[in-house]
Amino acid sequence: MGGLDIRMRGVTCGHGRVVAVDDVHLEVAAGERVALTGTNGSGKSTLLRAVLGLHRPASGSILVGGRGTASAADRGWRRRACAWVPQKPAAGRFPLLAGELLDSGGAPDEAAEAARGLGVDALRRQPLDTLSGGQLQRMYLARAIGCVAAGAGVLLADEPTAALDFAGQEEAAAALTALPVTLVVVTHDRALASRCDRVLDMAAGRLREVER
Ligand SMILES: Nc1ncnc2c1ncn2[C@@H]1O[C@H](COP(=O)(O)OP(=O)(O)OP(=O)(O)O)[C@@H](O)[C@H]1O
């Protein structure tokens, strides 16, 4: 099994005065699949964004494959090392067309093939903001599969099946958990969580292992 390990030590993240992530320690082995569950607003998305390097922790350290984010080169490496399925698209104009999103992962052919498998390849020429929630989520999944083909060793996915129909949820859960990467997935989907090796529960910024 491929993948990069993730090590978090004393990670605390804030949004202004709100402490969203509170002193989190977590080790995820290379190739392990971890589901992150928990109540709304408990800090799950903030923690994923911190791993990606999109949110700078107030304290603590996060290493992916033993590497931090001190330099610009480190941060660029982190973005390539971590494929990302966001909960909602980033604001801004790029990428505008669905095909541009697929191509942005670094492996356009593999992303296109994944889009075919997920039934959204015919939507390439459509602007992203005209896709339905489920179509958009499928497009992001296909892009993430392309990122993995391009060499990403970690997949961070934020509620990747939330907008999908029942068949799509099954399909996406199978596709995500079959990838040869370390997976950290925020989900309220029990079927997806049950396919993972570990389930962690987040409450008020703190993480707890769930016994199964
Ligand atoms: N950009 C922001 N500015 C201010 N507060 C924020 C921001 N983003 C998140 N927060 C706050 O940080 C806390 C954690 O939010 P986060 O989105 O990480 O939770 P979550 O567990 O992913 O929630 P959900 O399950 O609803 O998606 C919440 O109290 C939220 O209101």
From TrEMBL:
Keywords from the UniProt entry: ATP-binding, Nucleotide-binding
One Pfam family recorded for the sequence: ABC_tran
Domain called ABC transporter: residue spans: 6-212
Coiled-coil intervals, chain numbering: none
GO molecular function: ATP binding; ATP hydrolysis activity; transmembrane transporter activity
Annotated Gene3D superfamilies: P-loop containing nucleotide triphosphate hydrolases
GO cellular component: plasma membrane
Name of the protein in its database record: ABC transporter
Organism per entry: Streptomyces alboflavus
Record gene name: znuC
